[in-house]
Amino acid sequence: MQQFSELPPLGLYIHFPWCVKKCPYCDFNSHTVKDTLPEQEYVACLLADLDQQLPQVWGRRVNSIFMGGGTPSLFSAGSLDKLICALRARLNFRPDIEITLEANPGTVEQEKFSDFRRLGINRLSIGVQSFNNKHLQQLGRIHNAQEAIKAIEVAHKAGFEKLNIDLMYGLPGQTLGEATADVQMALALSPTHLSHYQLTIEPNTWFQRHPPMLPDDDRIAEFETSCRELLEQNGFERYEISAFARPDQQSEHNINYWQFGDYLGLGAGAHGKITGAPNQQIQRNWQVKHPRDYLKAKNTAQRTSGKQILTEKETAFEFFLNVFRLVKGFNPELFQQRCGLPIACVEKPLQIADSKDLIDWGQKRIVPTESGLQYLNDLTGLFLPDSAD
User: Fold this and answer.
1) Which of 256, 282, 300 is the last residue of a domain?
2) Over the stretch 327-380, which tens digit does the pLDDT of each residue have?
3) 317 and 249 in one domain?
4) What DSSP string describes 352-387?
5) 372 and 247 housed in the same domain
């Protein structure tokens, strides 16, 4: 039986499910804005959602908030101010809490950056994807390269000392020179964090129905290696498969995910994970996906789409699914702290992973090797409930 000696750190994720336009590669829960945003109604639903979930985390300190989407920056500063003030009244914020807002580089969003900073939002994540206008058009982005550059400059002027830029590589027709040029442009704009993702074709997207011609695996590997070396030469450390940061500028909220911490999920389609549910178990819950249904819900029973108590084997698998994304791995004690189980219960798959040179298994750290990071699905697949018998 699982026994937790302490509760994990707690974060809060808030989902904003609207965008100006749905991108062809996007499989997130996002919906095109057709008329005006129902800002007041949605904020009221978010707070009602929180009030119903509060008993699960009463008294626990919240270390980070991440407002994602969709495009949260479409909301007015006034609506976000009302939301953040209400959150402060209900939750125990850490004094130096990290509050992240995802933003697009559009002109309308840029005009709000100073107001967002005054609300206490202290980390901005800007979805640039590329500084190449041809690639931006292929990706269905509504901004151009100059608007992206301007947005980052505006964010600096607004006082955002913690600034992330999202970039993608492996784009249709992309060359090595174009991939590294995107990184060089990002570096010239002085972010503190850079998320560098490979474009993948996801189910239920426009790109799945109309697949673009992407570079082959060898070229994509070359893009990844060259861009990583360029970032490291310029003082960025790779701390997660797709995340690079200057010293002490990692995303606290995302690290909490990757270290299998707890988080409340508010908003349409949001997921949550809470330790300490009845009988020392971990509970996951997720909210109804479509914003129309979320807004119509009269209570939590209608707003919550599903709940799941993780079995011991599911707990172990989810732990490794997250923690092996971290380049420096984890201390074996973290497994017991987060899963409530002895590390001995996963000794067999760890031994197999070690024998295949997918991990470096030491007394104080278990670290994915370069092969482990490259073949992450193979590594985490060893811990699937059916594979771990």
Assistant:
1) 256
2) 999 999 999 999 999 999 999 999 999 999 999 998 899 999 999 999 999 999
3) no
4) HHHHTTSEEE-SS-EEE-HHHHHTHHHHHHTTSTTT
5) no
